[in-house]
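Appendix B, record 7
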Amino acid sequence: MKPTVTALDDNRGIRIFDPIENAYFEVETATPVAPDVAACDHFRFPVETAVEFATTALRIPELTSVFLHDDGELTATFDPSDGRLQTDGPRTLEVNIAPTKLYLRVNQPVTIHRDGDVVRLDFDGETVVRVGVRSLHDRPAGTITTTPNPEGAMRAVSLLGSALKTTSPERSFPTLRGHPPLVEVGDEFDVPNGIEPPDTGVRIEVPPEYEYVYPVSSLAYYLGAKVVAGDRPRLVTDTGFTYDLDGAEGFEQTVGRVLRQTFLLDCVTRTEGYYQVDLHERRRVESRLTWISPRSTTGRSPTASKRIWACRSRRSRTQSPTGR
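Structure tokens (predicted):
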């Protein structure tokens, strides 16, 4: 279930509808528009639906902040109380009031200013505007019906990752993890349309017993992993990585520790992603991973993200997830 973007009845604007949240938002245009489907990869940030059209101006029907990004870096913020903001060149504009995550991609100069009770975006002539939308997904997209046996439970848990908006380290942001689908027991296994697992190449092998399936549900959700039957609990990837989930401290404790460490390392690694921020935990992690080159005095190492992931893989093969 993805958001839709359609033209208003008079074609002077667009209507954004999120079927998961049952919410809509309208953006007015200065000229009639006919939105065409666009590629989602025009946007650096994850979006589920994208369209494009040409117009000379947009009107956001509420007073709202607008964040300007250049190649993912936050370069400026428009506040309605500040008057106006002018910028040139390609920019991604993040509108902060919509019931969805709303991004606008423009390649021409834009002037943002308050116009009464609305925010107006004026372009330097007719401009192609790309609109990207992502559901906030704060409620379940549907209900999976599973059979009353461990095998059915494994199939259902394998679908929880369908709510992830990305499988990159940015999944540690709450807005990039949607609410997982509900699960109920019935006579037959049934999955609503639109609930599809991500293709991560990660699987969790456990004995087909409830006492093994239930404890891995949160880890399977976060990793977008498939849960399958196996002789012993372990985490396996298509690239050949394996990790024993039945550690010395016990199965459930090991699973919880793996989830916590994965989340921590995602938070650390994402400092090289969409938002490059200084993070205390990153400095703590870097100080313990001696094969990572120290951050230079002029900024981050351009390959720090890759190195952090590499060291996580190497350490996990030989030590516990906490390195102890």
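Remarks on this record: The CA atoms of residues 86 and 111 lie 4 Å apart. The chain has two domains: 4-134, 143-318.
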